[in-house]
Write a structure and sequence with these properties.
The chain is mostly helical and 177 residues long. It has helices at 10-15, 32-42, 53-75, 81-91, 112-128, 159-176; strands at residues 18-19, 26-27, 97-100, 106-109, 133-135, 144-146. Strands 1-2 form a two-stranded antiparallel sheet. A two-stranded antiparallel ribbon has the order 3-4. Helix 3 packs across helix 4. This is ABATE domain-containing protein.
């Protein structure tokens, strides 16, 4: 299955590698190769990163800490100190190196640790800022996203999938009346 990256924040894109958290959990990161594919798809670095079992575990640990912190932000509940510690430790590392190439393009280099540092920094900026994090209103979807709509009225993680299904269901319900 392909990864989705349209949440409005890199860290929430990583959180989205688990779907349907309350029903039929869909885990998209099943091993190191999946983490390497996700990093490549996110465009964090130009060359594939090497991921071992420890790197896989670190990625999942960061993802779950960000998920719990974001959910606490949505619900207005307290954050776990252990989750903040995982996030802050990852954010403190050396990030992806960027340079301007002779042809004017941007080059991004680094390993998995650098990529995870960038993800963690995106989470810190999101959770410590004024952005509105929401969870998709579709009952079976648990995807988190940043609501960047003018009136903060966005309800679905993606209009092409969850939003479309909800609108079709509403239309069919009206037709039965």
């Amino acid at each position: 299955m392909d990864f989705k990256y349209g949440t409005g924040n890199l860290a929430l894109d990583l959180v989205g590698t688990v779907g349907h958290r309350r029903t039929d959990v869909l885990e998209l990161l099943t091993g190191p190769a999946d983490v390497a594919r996700w990093v490549a798809g996110a465009g964090l670095v130009d060359r594939p990163v090497a991921v071992d079992d420890a790197g896989f575990a670190a990625t999942v640990r960061l993802r779950e800490a960000v998920y719990r912190l974001a959910l606490a932000s949505i619900e207005g509940s307290g954050q776990r100190a252990a989750d903040r510690r995982v996030l802050n430790e990852a954010a403190a590392g050396p990030g992806v190196k960027v340079s301007l190439a002779d042809d004017g393009s941007v080059r991004r280099s680094g390993g998995l640790d650098a990529a995870l540092t960038e993800v963690a920094r995106a989470a810190v900026e999101l959770l410590g800022g004024s952005s509105t994090i929401k969870e998709c209103a579709a009952p079976e979807c648990t995807r988190l996203y940043v609501d960047q709509s003018r009136k903060q009225a966005r309800r679905w993680c993606d209009m092409r999938s969850c939003g479309n299904r909800a609108k079709v269901a509403e239309f069919r319900a009206r037709q039965k009346i």
